[in-house]
Amino acid sequence: MKNKRELTEDDYLLISRGHTFEDNYHRLVDLNSDFQDNEKIDKMWNVYLEGKHTIKKLDSWNEYLLNLINKEEEKIEDDERYCDNYIRDCAPYGDIWAQV
Question: Residue 100 above 50 pLDDT?
Answer without folding.
Answer: no
